[in-house]
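Q&A log
Question type: sequence-to-structure
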Amino acid sequence: MNKKILLVYAMLFFILGGCSNISEDKAKKIIVEEYSNQLGEATILSTEEKNDDYYIEWENKNDKSKGISKVSSNGEITLIESEIE
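Response status: OK
Response body:
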């Protein structure tokens, strides 16, 4: 009986753990951390949610870079577009 209960809890844990979505604030924080450096901090210009992913337009004025990156529901970053002046 105890093994069945343990198995049910383990299955619920894995099912719920696999459905991970991050919040918009967490996605923004990931982008700021990724594109900030010793020259300056990245700022968020806009955010759009599509299919559980966040498309975030960012800018780092001090190192003159900007771009658009996608943050997936598991926190993975994909650079969509980037520009350095």
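Response note: The radius of gyration is 18 Å.
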